[in-house]
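Why run this: before we spend reagent on co-expression, it is cheaper to look at a predicted model of the complex and decide which construct boundaries make sense. The entries below are exactly what would go into the expression plan.
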Amino acid sequence: MISDQLVDLSRLQFAATAMYHFLFVPLTLGMVWLLVIMESVYVMTGNVIWKDMTRFWGKLFGINFALGVTTGITLEFQFGTNWAYYSHYVGDIFGAPLAIEGLMAFFLESTMIGLFFFGWDRLPKTQHLLVTILMAVGTNLSALWILIANGWMQNPVGAEFSYVTMRMEMTDFWAVVFNPDAQAKFVHTVSAGYVTGAMFVLAVSSWYMLKGRDLEFAKRSFRVAAAFGLASVCSVIVLGDESGYTVGEAQQTKLAAMEAMWETKPAPAGLTLIAGINEAEQKNDWEVDIPWVMGLIGTRSVTQEIPGIHDIKAANRIRIENGIHAVVALEALRKDRDDAAAKAMFEQHKADLGFGLLLKKYVVDVRQATPEMIQKAVDSTVPRVTPMFWAFRIMVGLGFAMLLLFGWAFWSTLKMGCAQNPWLLRLALVMLPAPWIACELGWFVAEYGRQPWTIYGVLPTHLSVSTLSVNSLYGSLAGFIGFYTVLLVVEMYLMVKFARMGPGSLGTGRYSNEPVHTPAHA
Amino acid sequence: MIDYETLKLIWWLLVGVLLVGFAIMDGHDMGVGTLLPFVGKTDTERRVVINTVGPHWDGNQVWFITGGGAIFAAWPLVYATAFSGFYWAMLAVLWALFFRPVGFDYRSKIHNATWRSTWDWGLFVGGFVPPVIFGVAFGNLLQGVPFGFDDMLISTYTGTFWQLLNPFALLAGVVSSAMITLHGATYLAHRTEGHIQARTVRAGVGAAMVMVMSFAAAGAWLKWGGIEGFAITSTINPAALPDPLAKTVVRSADAWWANYATLPALWALPALGLLGPLLAAGLMAARRTLSAFVVSSLAIVGVIGTAGAAMFPFVMPSSTQLNASLTVWDSVSSHLTLGLMFWATLIFMPLIVLYTGWAYRVMRGKVTEQFVHDNEHAAY
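The model came back. Tokens follow.
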């Protein structure tokens, strides 16, 4: 039997490597469009300061991109190394978007990034701009296919289980592609990336202005970032709401946990702003509600109810009990593919197979499951409420805070005043970490909120792991953490160093802080 | 829609194409990484070497990523079983590859000899280690891997990491490393001049000799050294739903040579693997560097093709639960997914070749010390 420790360590390793990767991805997603905007202005106006902006922000983009690539390599292979049964069980569907991502998007992005950095003197202006645009398109298509894959984990449409091959098989590719979960997630996630890129440029430009250096360069950068950031943050919030709606449809457990909704409330439900969550007694000791709002977000209606945790668990208990029959029949069919009685039994209960498999965490032969085990399995179907509730609220709070900041920054640039308000500049600098925190919390809510499943309602996390030794996991986890920590320190060092040097680091002779020319022969 | 059996065959070829594509494209910059500390003596020389692949290594690395994704999509059981079974080997590849993106991008951003030399050795590790491990992995596939499945197809690897490092597998690692070093040398010779080029040619000729000898030795070992191949004895229905436990497999001394007996034209592959390196070395010495690169690429086709043709239809034979061996017939994804991925590959692969070719064209010509001087702040 698979040990809980192995599962926990495998989850921890995946979470660590994925969240680490996601420190770099949003900045790439956003900055790449800022580079497109800046270079377009350069090509249209011929004003060389816009070329310098493209190249300087591109330098910082490159420092970040290197770690995005490094940490991305891990993720393409970690499903195989650490989640072997998952890879077998759903590879028929999940593998396709990953492979298409490589073919359609990542090749394009990675080939063009080379020309972006090295092609300035080799390509005519317009062709170089085309390279930058293709790099941006590749980056965003990459996010699209990854989120199609992730969306399918949240809402597994267009596929069914085969007992002969012992896995899920794709039945409708377009259903997988146009999965509403995936589409809402894609726009929400890339917009969050755009906000991150805008925040980064806004904050670093603010710092130059506070220091009173490279003002022409900084003001233009600030203006682009403010406009792009404002549009993006609006998109994040609107599409976040759309995500909320699709979650409400596909994953009631996640929504209930996010909102700490223990009981089903009469429609239209109120939105709980904050609450004192009591996990032990499965209730809120107190809560502050805004009437109607949750019902509108979650169901787009005033009459439909949103089920609470207690009702969801009661429904899941029935599915687990049915699922036992599905698992038993499947095990018989694996021994004898022609067992007619087992086939009939399986057909009748196969919709609840995943729920039956939840019991495999507690017992090898699910027929031996005791009422206590079933109770544990039922309780496990809803993730812990406290981390979900607060992670979600902090994310949304930061989103609205950034809306205010970008609104202020945009309004301030519209006035075209030469000197920006120093309080605005200081606020922009202080808010620099906000998008990263929000992005990480967003991933947390999406992925922790899907537990106890890797594929929602289909494959329990517990069954998905590779049958490795616990010691192997300790070793690899330590290796990843060690490696990534060193790399992060190096990256931060370079990022801060070049951000402080500013556009002078290009060595054009037009800015402050020009580097002293060192002889090339060492 | 193409029938299932044909698609299974096509995907065996396509995975071969992706592997060869990876070895040719990512292989040449890994070869350059392997040569870097040895053919570049001064900092500027090393920057010249690095900048020959500077604009391209990232795109080339996607062959590796896409190869992984394609195996996931087309052969999910292979992806699951091989990467979890070869856990530490796979992590060693990933960790070695970590040095490349940061090594390339960060190395020349700081003027400090220790900093730069550290990243140079990092680039060496990122170029040297993966080909060795891939070779070792192939060496193990040819001998069978200790893994099995239970009724629910949960796989378990019963060997250890150290077991992978057996003498035959290490020899295969030498073949692979020499092949990639030679290939990198042909490319580097094409893009450099003077001292760097002369050193590169010398190193490349050496690598070619090692490659020919180790490849011949591996063949002889396989033929006379007591390594048994695998063969399916039950009837196989290639169009059936994939079920890796439904066949009977036996081991026999000449099973890996059976395909060559049935289809003698296949001998062209090992011939290419033996003669290609010699020809590539000769061309390189005569400074016909572009031809040398092409011939070296053909030698890669020969070496990888030799192993693939010997093992067909096996992909990952099991040495402990013979019937659980993974083959092109029974470890694949569904008919729909194979068809879909075939069309996706057919559409995008030519586009990739096209814009990659364009990128190389834009950046063509020798990379010189003058180039590094002129691009002090922009070049790697």
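The mean pLDDT of chain A is 92. The two ends of chain A are 59 Å apart (CA to CA). Bring this page to Monday's planning discussion.
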